[in-house]
Amino acid sequence: MPRSRKAQQPLLAMVALSKPALPDEEKIVSFFEKAWPKGPEIRFLEQQGGLASFELEDERGKLALMPAPIPWIDLEWPVSVAWYWPEARKKLLRHKAHILVALTGREETDLSLARRCLALSRVTAAVAAVTKAAGVYWGAAPLVMPTDGFVLGARNGTDAIPPIHLWVSFSIFSDKKKRIWLCTTGLHAFDLLEIETRCEKRKATDVIQTVAGIALLELMRGRPVGENGGSVPGPGGEDVHVKVGPSVLQGRGEVMTLEIR
Question: Is 153 found in the same domain as 63?
Fold first, then answer.
């Protein structure tokens, strides 16, 4: 995958906990061995108090125990649009602490941003699984995910087919004219335009599938799949017209609007 200019920046995720405690390092190592038997391997370097450091592939990272909930100001919006997790508000309002999962990056790394996000997803999934977490917060989108869904996505994600639904939110909104829109958040982290499309005339699940397929292709190529005013084929063979212009949502700037025909 092409490298983004952001490929060397620190990456962060958070795991919401019912009880404030760092997970056992051996349990995380064991989870990695079972989930990804062909690698990569995670190696812990040291642990002191509520902080543990590790190595994974060409990365270094840290786990930091925070004895307080993830600030609700960060969770409120992604919880409100988490249509795929009806219990998100109930689950996350109850959490007592969280673990900050960070990849700190190396200047000499050759890993693409998508590859680093995959590595972060795997560590986050391992932490969430062994702690029986209340959920996961991916701040770059931002989005929230139930523990089981995040773990499954991370286990199934590969370099060839990255788990884009763990990194990009696909949310439903209505505009001032009460038209229904599907909007992404999270593609900006990969230096890509967010995507918007109307979805009144098609099933939301079909629209999400089309938009997710196009977003995944963009992520893997590291560039837009179509030019302003042009068309691209959708994952199901449908004709998709591309237009670059202002967002229907305030404060989003320029986006790629898709007209699915």
Answer: yes
